[in-house]
From TrEMBL:
Record keywords: Acetylation, Cell membrane, Cell projection, Cytoplasm, Cytoskeleton, GTP-binding, Hydrolase, Lipoprotein, Magnesium, Membrane, Metal-binding, Methylation, Nucleotide-binding, Nucleus, Phosphoprotein, Prenylation
Subcellular location per the Swiss-Prot or TrEMBL entry: Cell membrane; Cytoplasm, Cytoskeleton, Cilium basal body; Nucleus
Domain of life from the UniProt record: Eukaryota
Family annotation (NCBIfam families): small_GTP
Broad class of enzyme this protein falls into: hydrolase
Catalytic activity: GTP + H2O = GDP + phosphate + H(+)
CDD domains membership: Rab28 (cd04109)
Chief subcellular location: membrane
Family, per entry: Belongs to the small GTPase superfamily. Rab family.
Name the UniProt record assigns to this protein: Ras-related protein Rab-28
UniProt organism field: Ficedula albicollis (Collared flycatcher)
PROSITE patterns membership: RAB, RAS
Pfam families: Ras (PF00071)
Family matches, as SMART domains: RAB, RAN, RAS, RHO
Amino acid sequence: MSDSEEEESPDHQLKLVVLGDGTTGKTSLATRFAQERFGKQYKQTIGLDFFLRRILLPGNLNVTLQVWDVGGQTIGGKMLDKYIYGAQGILLVYDITNGQSFENLEDWYNVVKKVNEESERQPLVALVGNKIDLEHIRTVKADKHQRFCLENNLSSHFVSAKTGDSVFLCFQRIAADILGIKLNKAELEQSQRVVKADIVNYSQEPVPRTVNPPRSSMCAVQ
């Protein structure tokens, strides 16, 4: 092994699962993060879409984030527990202009808890309020969001997949929290200025519902 290879920081791989009702912007959120773009036309995710993006965290730590975008209609599906299994992070996404999408998160969260009730390592769960570009027609008040976070020990995030506001910061903070890395103010401000990074689009097509999650996505965090 060469000296340069010895100096390279090993990659960490994290599986993040995005859950929530349809039309809350889950796919737009994943696409904005992984590909730095926003699709104006709504296309319902059937089953699962899968994205990858590599980011760099403090300490020269390379982290590959696997983002599993789960279709909103799959809450009663047989594959949902398999999609969630092995995830180090869960993003519970709702639309701040749609009160019902917030109320239904209780059902999504219950599925997460059921899947992980016997797991030694519990996933980090984040509450993500999307569409903050529509603040003027918000129906889910911020205090209601924060109360749900406090009651369930969730991390709190507000983003706009449409404008990109705080999207990278959301995923960066979640990855850092999972790995026990503290981000200082300068690093958080720098992340807001990130426009391009090492982006890998693994697949834009839905993964067939009969496919089992790849073993590589279930590695333990070191």
